[in-house]
User: What shape does this take?
Amino acid sequence: MRSTLALYLTVVVVALGVLTGCPSGPTPTPAVPTDGVLDVDMRNYVYEPKAFEFRVGETVEFRLISEDEPHTFTVKELGINWVVPKNEEPQVETFTFSEAGTYRLVCTVAGHEGSGMVGKITVVE
Ligand SMILES: [Cu+2]
Assistant: This one.
C-alpha cells in the first residue's frame, strides 16, 4: 500500500503544478550573494538560480559554470554580455549595480531564450 500512497502524492504534486500554471513549481526565492559572491549554473536551457536580488551600489562576483555547452549571461539594459563556454572551473565576472530596477536575463545563443533560458534580476534601493 505504501506504493499506492506514493503514487497518490505524486499525482497531487503534479496536479498542483498544473493548477498553478507553472511546471517547475512556485516562483523561486531570489538568490542573494553571500559575501558578494554568487554561483550560477547554466545547463539544459536553465539558469540556476534564475532569479536574483541585489542592492543599489552592490558589487557582485559571479562565478559562472556551464555544464553542457556555451551559454551567455546577458542583461542588455545593463550592458552585460558574458559568454561562458562549457567549463569546469568557474568563469569569474564582476559587476556593480548602480540603478534600481527589474532587468531581464537571457541567453543569446540561438534558440536558448525560446527554450526558456531566461531569468530576472531585481535591484532594490
Ligand atoms: Cu544558453
Observations:
- The pocket of copper (II) ion is lined by residues 71, 107, 109, 112, 117 (CB under 6 Å).
- The first helix runs from residue 2 to 19.
- The chain is about 15% helix and 40% strand.
- The longest strand covers residues 59-66.
